[in-house]
Amino acid sequence: MANPLDRTWYNTLVDDNGSGTTGTIWNKAAVDALMDTVDAALAPVLANPSSVDFTIDKNMPAIVEHYTGSTTKARILMPVPDMVTLSENMSYPGGNWVRDDPAKTGMFMNMSSGGCSIGTIDAQPPRSFLGVYSDGRVMLEAGARLVFPVTQVPSTDPTSLDDYREGNFTPYWSGNGGQSGQVYQIQEGTYTKIGRLVRCFGRLYLTTVGTISGSTVGIAGLPFPASANMYTPGVGFITSGAFGSSFSQITGTVVAGGTVCNLQYIPAAGASAWSALPPSFIVAGNDASFTIEYHAAN
User: For 165-295, CATH number?
Assistant: First the structure.
């Protein structure tokens, strides 16, 4: 037996018969026997805490039951609405979680010497979605995904990933002096944003030119404002046909702080100097595919 609990406390109890004496009314022998029983029950716990058997009243706000032997079992009841009971029957170190009540849903956490896994009991069999392992790995299990807030919360920590999203945007031809009246047969764009890095893909098929004015043409409508702290926050690459003049290459620079990629070109016939792409290059029937990559403001 473990060291008995100190029992001198009840030797000092004053009897409640008004005599002011101690020990005459209290049945010290019965109390002593009860304490012996408690000592015996606590002995294996004190000797080996990992072998403790817990059974706690289910009216308590949280319940844990843990057993060891040839198998390991655990039960956790969480104080949430429509209380969920989770049960585990497992051969160390793995396990199989089942629901006591198939009508209930919830989450579980499974811990062992190899790590910790978190999952849902909504599916049958229950599925683990996140694992944190003793060798330092943090793994999203099959079917899991990492979701970022709809509205980004930018972080100043250079080692933190604070945003990921995919989506569509509507690109259009723009002039630095304005544009109007364009009609497109195809006007589509998609993007992927990882942190501040934005990569866009799109296609513009123009059937009516309308009016594009100014000294340079660009592709506008990019999904996020570019960084204002970089002289050249991004670059675009254009592959297309039916421009108004011949060229050997077309590229562009995303305007700092803006949502437009202004285009430049190298004329054909061996020229090497870059020039701003003029509005005269944009004609009916122009079909341009593009890739634009840049750093967003956030």
Answer: 2.60.120
